[in-house]
Amino acid sequence: xxxxxxxxxxxxDTCGFExxxxxxxxxxxxxxxCEKCGNTxxxxxxxxxxxxxxxxxxxxxxxxxxxxxxxxxxxxxQHEHED
Length: 83
Hints:
Layout: E1 2-4, E2 9-11, E3 18-19, E4 24-25, E5 29-33, E6 40-42, H1 43-50, H2 52-61, H3 68-82
Antiparallel strand pairs: 1-2, 2-3, 4-5, 5-6
């Protein structure tokens, strides 16, 4: 998790977007912390990779908040169990 103490902000580990933790941005959305690996990511990076529908699915129905990389792993594991 990239924290900048001089500005009291965090940055997305994927795109570098920087903002306060509980703030929202019109383009990047909110910053989140992955509960699996600890990386910080913005809503935009997740949505750009998987789409808004899958973002909402992860946020509302998964047992953890996942960064895009960990969500990719989670999806693979789910598909392996479905086969």
